[in-house]
Every structure is written in C-alpha cells, then in structure tokens.
Amino acid sequence: MPKNILLPCTFLIASSLAATGHAEGSGALTLNLADDEYVLPLWSEQSDWSGGESWPSINIHARAPSEGGGDPLVVSLSFEASRWEPAVPELDLTRYKDGAVVLKLFAREEADHGALSVTLEGHEVDGSMLSLAGRFEGTMGTSDNFGRDIDLSDAVPVKGTFEVTLENLD
After folding, report:
1. Which domain covers residue 131, as residue numbers?
2. 72 found inside a domain
3. What is the pTM of this model?
C-alpha cells in the first residue's frame, strides 16, 4: 500500500476507535458516610444514561484515589426516572486498600434494604447529553450477594448530592 494512503487510513481507524472508546461526562458526587465527607469526581467512562427523555435510566459512577494516588473509593448510584420521578435507586460503595476490597456497602429503595431515596433538583437534556442535579439519602449495610440481601445490623447512614453531565450511549 502506498505510504500516502496508509497515513490517512491509520488516522481514520484511530479516530473511530477513540470516538467509540468511552462516554463523555463531567461533574462530581458528594458523599456523607457516617461522619466522613467525600467529594468524588465523576468516573465518566463508567457513567451514562439510556432510554428516552421521559423515562431515562441513570448510572452515576464516581471514584477518587486515596491520599498518595492509590486505592480508590468507588461509588455507584443508579435509578430510573419515569417523568423525572426517581424510582428503584441503588447505591453501592467499595473501598480498596493495597489493591484489595476492604469494604463493600449497599443501599436499596426498600425499607429493609436501607430506604434509599433520590430527589432530583434539576435536569436538562441537550442532544445526547443529560445534566442532572440531585440528592440522595438512606442507610447502607453489607451484603454477601451484591445487594440482593442487605444486613443493616451495623448500618451506616449515608446522604449526598450529585451534579453531573452524562452521555446517552443508546
């Protein structure tokens, strides 16, 4: 293949791969867990929204490394928003130390699963981008099956806010 054709082809392939690589997004989630507050930047590669404007499904993932740049705290908040009324929220938190999981907490909507609630304070759809602001509150507990059953015997109160912009990947 002639060199003058090879360079444009390489550029087109690289551009296509970069364009489909991950979701665009920005913002942060503030988490108050027991007596500690964390401000976690949006993990845009893992965060998105799907569905239509009247019934979106929201997935907000945020993470921040601990001091020194390692061992992140990862938080995932997801919910449906039919007519922009949040429903079936799920909140998961994972803390790492030396590369290993040392804490996993979960909260769901049901009273015996943490009574997690989400309130939207504003939203705006602009093409494939969704800007959202809101707050959440509930109780987190441990689980042996990824949140299907949550043990609240050593429950930890949680509340927080989010202000994010997410990309629709449908």
Report:
1. 23-167
2. yes
3. 0.83
Q: Is 97 exposed, middle or buried (0-12, 13-18, 19+ CB in 10 A)?
A: exposed
- How many domains are contained in the chain? 1
- 60 vs 43: CA distance, rounded Å: 8
Which pLDDT score is estimated for 1? Answer: 45
Question: What type of residue sits at position 166?
Answer: L
Cβ neighbours for 72, distance < 8 A, ≥ 6 positions apart: 63, 64, 65, 66, 96
In a domain? residue 6: no
Q: Which of 95, 87, 68, 84 is nearest to 123 (CA)?
A: 84
What confidence tens digit (pLDDT) does each residue in 110-125 have?
Answer: 999 999 999 999 999 9
Assigned domain for 68 exists: yes
Are 150 and 141 in contact by the 8 Å Cβ rule? The answer is yes
As a whole number of angstroms, the distance between CA 17 and CA 135 comes to: 35
User: 3-state DSSP call for residue 19?
Assistant: helix
CA–CA dist 139, 146 (Å, integer): 16
Q: Is residue 4 part of a domain?
A: no
Per DSSP, which regions of the chain are E strands? Answer: 25-33, 36-41, 48-52, 55-65, 72-82, 85-97, 100-108, 117-126, 129-142, 151-167
